[in-house]
Amino acid sequence: MAKKQPTAEDLAAELDQKSAEIRILQRVSSAINATLDLEEIYGIVLGTMDEIFGFHHSLILLLDESGETLTVVASRGYEGQTLGGQVRVGTGLIGVVAKKRRLMRLSNLGSQRGYIAAIRKQMEEAGRSGELEEAAPVPGLPNVESQIGIPLLIKDNLIGVFSVESAEQKMFSDREETLVAIVANQAASAIHNARLYRAEEQRRQELAELNETLEDRVRARTAELERANRELRDMQTQLVQTEKMASLGMLVAGVAHEINTPIGAIAANTDLVRRATEIVRQRIEDKGSLAELAGDSRLRQAVETLRQASQTEQLACERVTSIVKSLRNFARLDESEEKLVDLHEGIESTLTLLRHELKKGVEVVKHYGDLPQVLCFPSQLNQVFMNLLNNAISATGGKGTITITTARDGDGVVLRFADTGGGISPQNLKRIFDPGFTTKGVGVGTGLGLSICYRIIQHHQGTIEVSSEVDKGTEFTLRLPIQPH
Amino acid sequence: MGEVRLPDEIRPVMENGIPAQVGTCSADGTPNATDISRVYYVDSEHLALSNQFFSKTIRNIRENPRACVNLNDLEAFTCWVVHLEFDRSETDGPIFDAMDMQIEAIASMTGMSNVFKLKAADIYRVTSVEKIEYGPAS
Amino acid sequence: MIPEEIVTFLEGATVGFAATRDAHLVPHIHFVAGWIVGDDRKTITCFFPPNYSKVLMPSLQDNGQFALTVLGSTSGPKASKPPRPDVDFHECYQFKGDYATSRLANAADAAVVERKGESFRKLFVPLFGFSEEACAARFKKPALAMTFPVRDIFDQTPGPGAGRRVET
C-alpha cells in the first residue's frame, strides 16, 4: 500500500512546530543555566515539562552517596507527598534506568504489570512464593501507563534520573522523547553546577564560622598553654631545687674542710688551755704572795699562752660564723620571695663557700662597680653565681684567674664572670644552655646547671650570654633589670 | 527472494503495549497459538520476541523456524500480519540489553525479578508483512 | 469432554484467536470473535469476522489442524476470590483439534459475538484505553462459523503451570 505523501502545508506546519520547539528549548536552556539555585532549576525544568510540553507528571531524583538509592528532590503534578520518596537502583523503570544508565520509554504499563501480577498469583498458588520478592512501591503515579526515564549523567557519572509519566494510554512519541531528553541533559549539567556551587558555598560558610570562633579557640588555647606553662614552671622550680641541692652536695666537702680548720685549731687549743690553766692553778697555790707570782716567769708564760689561745679561738669562731653565714646567705631558704638585695653580697658569700676550691691556686680579681640593690629572688641568683664560679674553677683546673666585673647599665646591671681556662669549642658553645648538655663526664655534673641558670635569668627578665675562645678562656655576661616588670 | 522491509508505521504498533498473537507449527504439523505482551523492533528487516515462558513456541521454532505474528492497532481498525523466520538467539548485545531492561523494569516493580528474567532475545527475519484494515463498525 | 469449569470459563472469556498452518507448515493467526461449546461438550464452534483471512479455509481444507486460544477473565477456575480484575483476565487455555464443519454464521452466532464484544469493551476500554468504536469494529456481525472436536486442552495461563495438558 502506498504511503500517503505529506503536503506542502504539512511540511510547513511541521517546520513551524520544530522551530517553535527549538526556540523553547533555547529559552529553557538559558533560564536553567542562568541560575545556581537548585530549587529554581527544578522549578524551571518541571514547569517547562508541564506548561509548555504538556507532561503534567514529572520527577527529578538524585542518586544518594551510597549509589544504591535515588531520592525524589522535586516533583510536579502528584497528589500527596512524593518529595523524599525513594527508589532502589534496579527497581522499576526509574531504578533500571539508573542501573543501566540508558533512557527507557515504556507504554501500557498497566497491562504489563497486570500480566506479571497474574504470573505472580499463579506462582503463589503453586506454592512458589519463596521465589518472589516483595513488590517495591516506587514514587509516581499509581496508575502510570506511559513513562520516560532519562539518566542524568555528567560525563559517565550518574547523578540522578528524570522521569516523565502519564496515566493516559497514549504512548510518548519519538519527538516527545527527544524534547524530554534535551531538557534532562540541560538539567543534569545545571544541577551538577549548582551542587558544586552549593558545596563551595557551604565550605566558605564553614570557613567563615571557623574564623568567627577562632578568637574563642585562641583564648581557650592560650588558657591551656598558660596552664601547661604553670605546670612547666613548677617542674622547673623543682629542677632548680634539685640542682641547688646537687650544688650544695658538691660544696659540702669543701665547706667541711673550711669548718674543720678552725674547729681543729679550737680542739688543739683545748689541751693547751687545759695545761696552761693547770700551771696557773699550781703556781697560785704554791706561791704565798702576789709579789712571788709576779716574778714567776712560768706563770707569765702560761697566761700568755691562754691569751693567744683565746685569740685563736675567737678567730676560729669568727671563721665558722662567717662560713655558716655564707651558707645561709647562699641558700636564702627563708627568702623565697622577691626582695631588693645587694648582688655583691651574694657573690661574696658564694666565693666564701668556694674558698677551699679557690685557694688551690685560683686568683679572684674583683672589679666591683657601684651597684644599686636589685629586685630578685636572691637564692636563685646565688645559685647562678655558684654555678658560673664553679664552672670557672673547673675550667682553670685549679690554676688561673677569675675576674668578676660588675657595673650598672642604665636600668639594669651587668655582671661578668671571666676565667682564664681552656675555653669552649664553637660546637659545644652552641649547645651550652641545652638541658642535659655537659662536658664534665657522666656522674660529675647534672648537666642541668647552665640550662637552669638560663631559666633563672630569663625568669628575672634578664639575659645570659657566653663568649669563649679555646685556650684563652670563657666569659659569661649576665644582664639583669634593677626592677623587673 | 527480495528482502521484505517493515514499514515505519508498524513501529508504534509494536510498541503500543497491546498483546500480540504468535502462531507457530511443530514439525509434525500441529499449530500453536499464544499471546505475547511485546514484540521488539530490531531493524527494518528483523524483529525480536522475548524468550521467557512460551516453551511450546520455542520448541516449535527450533523444529520449524516459521512463525506468524498479528499486531493489533484497534484505534486504526488495523491488524498487521507479519510472517517471520527464526534467525538467531542472542543472550547479550544491545538488542538483548534493551529488551532485558524493559522486562527488568516491570518485573522489579512486582517483586518478580528472580522469576521474570529474559533468557534470550530471539531474532526473526521478516518474510512478509500484510496490513488488514477492517474499518469501523457499520 | 471439556471439563464443566472450562465450559464456564469459555462462556465468560473475552479474547480468542486461532492458529492454522498451510501445506508448507507456515502458521497463520486468525482473530476469533466468539465461540460456543457444543451440547455434548466435545466440540467448539468458532465465529470469524467478515474479513477473515483468506488462508483460513484453504489451510483447514488442506490439513484440518486447528488451535484455538482463549483468554478469559474472572469466570474461570483460576478466578480469584474475591475477584481481582487486574490479574484475572490472564487465565488462558488452548484447544486443539481437527476441522470438522463450517457454515455461514447466523443470527444466534451474531448474538454470541455481540455478547463477547460487550464483555471485551467492559474489560479493555479501561485497561487499554480503547474507544467504543474501536471495540465495536472488532466484533462485527460474524461471517463464518467453524466447528472442531476438541482433542487436547492445554492450560496456557502465564506462570509455572503454563503448557500443562488438562484432563478431558
What does this structure look like?
The complex is a heterotrimer of chains A (485), B (138) and C (168). With 485 residues, chain A is of the alpha+beta class. In chain A, 56% of the residues lie in helices and 18% in strands. In chain A, strands 3-2-1-6-5-4 form a six-stranded antiparallel β-sheet, with helices on both faces. In chain A, strands 8-10-11-13-12 form a five-stranded mixed β-sheet. Chain B starts with 9 loop residues before the first helix and ends in a 5-residue tail after the last strand. In chain B, strand 5 and strand 6 form a beta hairpin. Chain B has one domain: Pnp Oxidase, Chain A, CATH 2.30.110. Chain C has 168 residues and is an alpha+beta fold. In chain C, helix 4 runs antiparallel to helix 5. The longest helix of chain C is centred in the last third of the chain and has 22 residues. The model of chain C has no long low-confidence stretch (mean pLDDT 88). At the B-C interface, strand 1, strand 2, strand 5 and strand 6 of B face strand 1, strand 2, strand 5, strand 6 and helix 5 of C.
Q: Could you say how many structural domains of chain B there are in total?
A: 1
Largest interface: B-C, 37 and 43 residues
Largest sheet of chain B: 7 strands, antiparallel
- Radius of gyration of chain B, Cα only, in angstroms? 15 Å
Number of helices in the DSSP assignment of chain A: 12
User: What is the end-to-end distance of chain A?
Assistant: 112 Å
Number of strand elements of chain B: 7
CATH class of chain B, anyone? Mainly Beta
What's the short story on this structure?
Chain A has 485 residues and is α+β, with helices and mostly antiparallel strands. Chain A has 12 helices and 13 strands. Chain C is an alpha+beta fold and 168 residues long.
Give the topology, please.
The complex is a heterotrimer of chains A (485), B (138) and C (168).
Chain A: H1 8-33, H2 38-52, E1 57-63, E2 69-76, E3 86-88, H3 92-100, E4 104-106, H4 109-125, E5 146-154, E6 157-166, H5 174-286, H6 290-294, H7 297-331, E7 339-341, H8 343-353, H9 355-358, E8 362-367, E9 374-376, H10 378-396, E10 400-409, E11 412-419, H11 426-430, H12 449-459, E12 463-469, E13 473-481
Parallel strand pairs in A: 8-10
Antiparallel strand pairs in A: 1-2, 1-6, 2-3, 4-5, 5-6, 7-9, 10-11, 11-13, 12-13
Helix pairs in contact in A: 1-2, 1-5, 2-5, 5-7, 5-12, 7-8, 8-10, 10-12
Chain B: H1 10-14, E1 20-25, E2 31-36, E3 40-43, E4 46-51, H2 55-63, E5 66-73, E6 78-90, H3 94-109, E7 120-133
Antiparallel strand pairs in B: 1-2, 1-5, 3-4, 4-7, 5-6, 6-7
Chain C: H1 4-12, E1 15-21, E2 27-32, E3 34-37, E4 43-48, H2 56-63, E5 65-72, H3 85-88, E6 91-98, E7 101-104, H4 107-128, H5 132-138, E8 144-155, E9 164-166
Antiparallel strand pairs in C: 1-2, 1-5, 3-4, 4-8, 5-6, 6-8, 7-8, 8-9
Helix pairs in contact in C: 4-5
